[in-house]
Write a structure and sequence with these properties.
Blueprint: E1 2-7, H1 13-27, E2 30-33, E3 39-44, H2 50-60, H3 70-93
Antiparallel strand pairs: 1-3, 2-3
Helix pairs in contact: 1-2, 1-3
Amino acid sequence: MLQTFEVLNVKCGGCANTLIKSLSKEFGDVTVDLESEPRKITLDIEDDKIERLKVILRGLGYPLATDELGTMGSIKASAKSFVSCAIGKISKAGE
């Protein structure tokens, strides 16, 4: 089922590239809306896979807007997102 989720810490095309590459392996086509705030991702996912999606997103530093991370969790996610963004920019440049 095609579903859309609000995702935090997504700032640019580098972030979007990281999300697309990281999620497409498991979920197929992924679109990232960089025009909305918070940013949105859309992918074909069944409800029983949403927890797996959350784990992947948190690992990249892009938690769902509905995740309750607390202060330290938010700081960690923000730091991870900077690294993921840089990787996405480098990866895109190398294409």
